[in-house]
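Can anyone check this?
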Amino acid sequence: MKVSQELLDQMITHAVEDSPNECCGLLGGEGDMASTVYRAENAEKSPYRYSIAPREQLELMNRIEEAGESIVGIYHSHTRTAAYPSQTDINLAIGWPDSIYLIVSLENPDEPYVRGFRIRDGRVEDVDLQTR
Protein backbone atom coordinates (compact mmCIF):
# COMPACT_ATOMS: atom_id res chain seq x y z
CA MET A 1 0.00 0.00 0.00
CA LYS A 2 1.25 3.45 -0.84
CA VAL A 3 0.78 5.92 1.98
CA SER A 4 2.48 9.24 2.64
CA GLN A 5 4.53 9.91 5.73
CA GLU A 6 2.06 12.73 6.46
CA LEU A 7 -0.83 10.24 6.69
CA LEU A 8 1.23 7.91 8.89
CA ASP A 9 2.01 10.89 11.12
CA GLN A 10 -1.71 11.78 11.29
CA MET A 11 -2.54 8.26 12.46
CA ILE A 12 0.25 8.36 15.05
CA THR A 13 -0.96 11.75 16.31
CA HIS A 14 -4.48 10.36 16.60
CA ALA A 15 -3.16 7.36 18.56
CA VAL A 16 -1.22 9.58 20.95
CA GLU A 17 -4.19 11.90 21.49
CA ASP A 18 -6.59 9.03 22.25
CA SER A 19 -4.15 7.09 24.46
CA PRO A 20 -4.54 5.26 26.78
CA ASN A 21 -7.53 4.10 24.69
CA GLU A 22 -7.13 2.70 21.21
CA CYS A 23 -7.90 5.05 18.36
CA CYS A 24 -9.53 4.04 15.08
CA GLY A 25 -10.43 5.36 11.68
CA LEU A 26 -10.60 4.75 7.97
CA LEU A 27 -8.29 5.54 5.09
CA GLY A 28 -9.75 6.87 1.87
CA GLY A 29 -8.02 6.61 -1.46
CA GLU A 30 -7.98 4.69 -4.69
CA GLY A 31 -6.55 1.30 -5.52
CA ASP A 32 -3.53 0.73 -3.33
CA MET A 33 -2.94 4.42 -2.62
CA ALA A 34 -4.18 6.04 0.59
CA SER A 35 -5.03 9.73 0.26
CA THR A 36 -6.97 10.76 3.34
CA VAL A 37 -7.22 9.84 7.02
CA TYR A 38 -10.76 9.84 8.37
CA ARG A 39 -10.64 9.80 12.14
CA ALA A 40 -13.37 8.00 14.05
CA GLU A 41 -14.28 7.87 17.69
CA ASN A 42 -13.58 4.58 19.38
CA ALA A 43 -17.07 3.63 20.56
CA GLU A 44 -15.53 1.13 22.96
CA LYS A 45 -13.44 3.80 24.73
CA SER A 46 -11.07 1.00 25.64
CA PRO A 47 -7.31 0.40 25.68
CA TYR A 48 -7.96 -3.17 24.45
CA ARG A 49 -10.43 -2.95 21.58
CA TYR A 50 -12.08 -0.61 19.15
CA SER A 51 -15.24 -0.19 17.14
CA ILE A 52 -16.87 2.57 15.16
CA ALA A 53 -20.51 3.28 15.97
CA PRO A 54 -22.76 2.39 13.02
CA ARG A 55 -23.99 5.97 12.54
CA GLU A 56 -20.43 7.38 12.46
CA GLN A 57 -19.33 4.56 10.18
CA LEU A 58 -22.10 5.48 7.72
CA GLU A 59 -21.17 9.19 7.93
CA LEU A 60 -17.52 8.40 7.23
CA MET A 61 -18.40 6.12 4.34
CA ASN A 62 -20.57 8.90 2.85
CA ARG A 63 -17.75 11.44 3.26
CA ILE A 64 -15.31 9.09 1.56
CA GLU A 65 -17.71 8.51 -1.32
CA GLU A 66 -18.44 12.24 -1.65
CA ALA A 67 -14.69 12.85 -1.90
CA GLY A 68 -14.56 10.41 -4.82
CA GLU A 69 -12.55 7.94 -2.79
CA SER A 70 -12.97 4.35 -1.66
CA ILE A 71 -12.13 2.81 1.67
CA VAL A 72 -8.59 1.49 1.22
CA GLY A 73 -7.75 0.80 4.83
CA ILE A 74 -8.87 0.58 8.42
CA TYR A 75 -6.55 1.71 11.18
CA HIS A 76 -6.39 1.49 14.94
CA SER A 77 -3.77 1.65 17.64
CA HIS A 78 -2.21 -0.69 20.14
CA THR A 79 -1.23 1.46 23.07
CA ARG A 80 0.89 -1.08 24.93
CA THR A 81 1.73 -3.80 22.46
CA ALA A 82 3.40 -4.30 19.11
CA ALA A 83 1.74 -3.46 15.82
CA TYR A 84 0.44 -6.95 15.09
CA PRO A 85 -3.20 -8.08 14.92
CA SER A 86 -4.58 -9.48 18.16
CA GLN A 87 -7.03 -12.37 18.13
CA THR A 88 -9.79 -9.77 18.60
CA ASP A 89 -8.53 -7.92 15.50
CA ILE A 90 -8.51 -11.16 13.54
CA ASN A 91 -12.06 -11.96 14.66
CA LEU A 92 -13.30 -8.47 13.73
CA ALA A 93 -11.71 -8.70 10.27
CA ILE A 94 -14.23 -11.33 9.20
CA GLY A 95 -16.61 -8.55 8.21
CA TRP A 96 -14.04 -6.69 6.09
CA PRO A 97 -11.84 -9.34 4.39
CA ASP A 98 -10.62 -7.09 1.56
CA SER A 99 -9.36 -4.27 3.75
CA ILE A 100 -5.81 -3.44 4.62
CA TYR A 101 -5.44 -3.08 8.39
CA LEU A 102 -2.96 -0.56 9.67
CA ILE A 103 -1.93 -0.72 13.30
CA VAL A 104 -0.15 2.09 15.13
CA SER A 105 1.98 0.86 18.01
CA LEU A 106 2.69 3.09 20.98
CA GLU A 107 4.48 0.24 22.76
CA ASN A 108 7.54 2.49 22.92
CA PRO A 109 6.04 5.99 23.15
CA ASP A 110 9.28 7.55 21.91
CA GLU A 111 9.25 5.44 18.77
CA PRO A 112 5.69 4.92 17.52
CA TYR A 113 5.36 3.05 14.24
CA VAL A 114 2.72 1.74 11.83
CA ARG A 115 2.51 -1.64 10.11
CA GLY A 116 0.02 -2.94 7.57
CA PHE A 117 -1.70 -6.31 7.33
CA ARG A 118 -4.21 -8.21 5.29
CA ILE A 119 -6.39 -10.53 7.37
CA ARG A 120 -8.34 -13.21 5.53
CA ASP A 121 -9.87 -16.39 6.87
CA GLY A 122 -8.01 -15.93 10.14
CA ARG A 123 -4.63 -15.66 8.42
CA VAL A 124 -2.45 -12.58 8.82
CA GLU A 125 -0.15 -11.38 6.04
CA ASP A 126 2.19 -8.41 6.19
CA VAL A 127 1.48 -5.60 3.76
CA ASP A 128 4.38 -3.45 2.73
CA LEU A 129 3.70 0.23 3.41
CA GLN A 130 5.46 2.28 0.77
CA THR A 131 5.85 5.85 1.88
CA ARG A 132 5.90 8.48 -0.81
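Reply from J.R.: I decoded it. Strands lie at 2-3, 24-30, 33-40, 70-78, 100-105, 113-120, 123-127, 130-131.
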